[in-house]
Amino acid sequence: MAARACRRRARRRKASMVYAAPMTQETAFGIADRAFDTIAECIRRQARQRPAAPALSDGETALSYGALDARMDRVAAALQRDGLAPGEAIALCAAPSVAQATLFLGALRAGAVVAPLAPGSTPASLARMLADAQATRLFVDAGSEAEFAGNALPRTRLDADLEAWLAPEGTSPRPVEIHPESPFNIIYSSGTTGEPKGIVQPHGMRWAHVRRGLPYGYGPGAVTLLATPLYSNTTLVVFFPSLAFGGEVVLTRKFDALAYLQLAQRVHATHTMLVPVQYQRLMAHEQFDRFDLSAFRLKFCTSAPFPAALKAEVLRRWPGGLVEFYGMTEGGGTCILEAHLHRDKLHTVGKPAPGTDTRLIDDAGHELAAGATGEVVGHSPGMMVGYHRRPDATREAEWFDATGKRFIRTGDIGRFDADGFLVLLDRRKDMIISGGFNIYPSDLEAQLREHPAVTDAAVVGVPSAQWGETPVAFVVCRPGHAAEARALRDWLNARVGKTQRLAALHLVDELPRSAIGKVLKRELRERHAAMAPCRP
């Protein structure tokens, strides 16, 4: 037993020194030499040269590159048969599966714009997203179909009707011309009330994500294990490069720490993308150190604050390198922290990625000098077209320098240290990131104000051992209207998506405000820490 443990530790020490297999011209299939290409064509090349190589699996279904390419053709041809024109949107609402991934990829080959929707959203929110995307067809699974009851949009069940809907085997779709500026997908970032806001990402932005993967060891022999959903940009920034370079992608329907560890060991996973709360749960699992994870080359993280102490623990106990991406679904300024190479910079989010331009501006929009603190703005080859059908919101998200160069505003406040690493200090926007998902307090506040007993409300994010952050509400009742905190919280939680539910609700006489009337949310967070929360 002791000898076996020593051998395992030796394997882990050896693996921890190898962060990425070299990407040769042969394994990269010329990606480094092409200014632009589509992911669908990258998969086509893999299928022609390595048709039997594994491409996708989900525990029930597995496809080789040859089979994946052929199925993508059948999806694209079926959409064209149904009258879809390039640039039109389809909506996809389902749990991660080979069927979902194949539908997404095949739709891209047809020139469709894919709008992946979160199954955990409320029916009302899903209806608004469908309408906003102007989707011509909807694809669902058994877990999400009921949320669209009464919707007249043509619908196909991925787990029941897909085979009958597909074009016959051997069918080839009509070629579609795709340019870097052509829309690729619409990612919806929030919305329980009001009009949803969709982020339109072009093909050129996704191609930039693929090229960013050149040094990361994707390719034949690599196995990327994904435990986050395909409607999230967090997942997609790793999913597409893994396939473009010819690696295998293993999908899981739901994250469970023990099941993840068992699967990672069984498939000899080399790459993964996880959000900080998932890393926390894995590190806390009592059986973590029993698993052989020595095949890992790189682990990625994005979407939420990643505590330095947790990064250090992952580096200490999990073989392979650790890379943190800082950026937005909207694109623009991306910073990369190769934590295994910069162990003294774990409190930062790294340096601006090659080919990007990240700056800091003040409240008036003036660029700041080195060493100053301000809002982070960025420009890169990967930037959104804009918010779908929301030119006003798009303008608010943009900043232009003196030469007219376009940047995306992050809403985050930070500063660069003497070595050029970005240190984040606070978020200008009040967005809450819970379990890797974005929650906008204004949505929850608007919903709370619809209750007849509520006159005012503020929602803040507070630390959570389980989710990283979780929303908590402070509510002022109307004069003469009695309300009970637990009942109000339950009322709201029944009306919002699963990821948006309040952990606590406090009744207060008034909200603390500044001299100009702004709610002092930092004070509310401090007040919550000193109060007993309302619990089930």
Can you walk me through this structure?
With 536 residues, the protein is of the alpha/beta class. 30% of the residues lie in helices and 24% in strands. It has 16 helices and 26 strands. The protein has a 9-stranded mixed β-sheet with strand order 2-1-10-9-11-12-13-14-15, sandwiched between helices. Strand 22 and strand 23 form a beta hairpin. The longest helix is centred in the N-terminal third of the chain and has 17 residues, at 65-81. It is globular. The two termini are 45 Å apart. 48% of the residues are buried. Residues 1-18 have low confidence and may be disordered.
Give the key terms:
536 residues, alpha/beta, nine-stranded mixed beta sheet, five-stranded antiparallel beta sheet, 16 helices
Helix and strand arrangement:
Elements: H1 2-16, H2 25-28, H3 39-49, E1 54-57, E2 62-64, H4 65-81, E3 89-93, H5 98-109, E4 113-116, H6 123-133, E5 135-140, E6 155-157, H7 162-165, E7 183-188, E8 198-202, H8 203-212, E9 223-226, H9 233-244, E10 248-251, H10 257-267, E11 271-274, H11 276-284, E12 298-301, H12 308-317, E13 321-326, E14 335-338, E15 351-352, E16 357-361, E17 374-379, E18 386-387, H13 391-397, E19 398-400, E20 406-416, E21 422-427, E22 432-434, E23 437-439, H14 441-448, E24 454-464, E25 468-477, H15 485-493, E26 504-507, H16 521-529
Parallel strand pairs: 1-10, 3-4, 3-5, 5-6, 9-10, 9-11, 11-12, 12-13, 25-26
Antiparallel strand pairs: 1-2, 7-8, 8-18, 13-14, 14-15, 16-17, 17-20, 19-20, 20-21, 22-23, 24-25
Helix pairs in contact: 3-4, 3-9, 4-5, 8-9, 11-12
